[in-house]
Amino acid sequence: MLVRDLDGPGPDRTSRDPMTRDDGQDTGFDDVLRQHAGLLSRIAASYEADPALRDDLLQDMALALWRALPNWRREAPLRAFVARVAHNRGATHVVGQMRSPLGGALNEDWIEPRHGPDGHAELEERRVRLQDAVRRLPLSQRQAVTLALEGFSHAEIADALGITTNSVGVRLNRAKAALKSVLGEDA
Question: Tens of pLDDT along 100-128?
Answer without folding.
Answer: 655 555 455 544 455 556 667 777 788 88
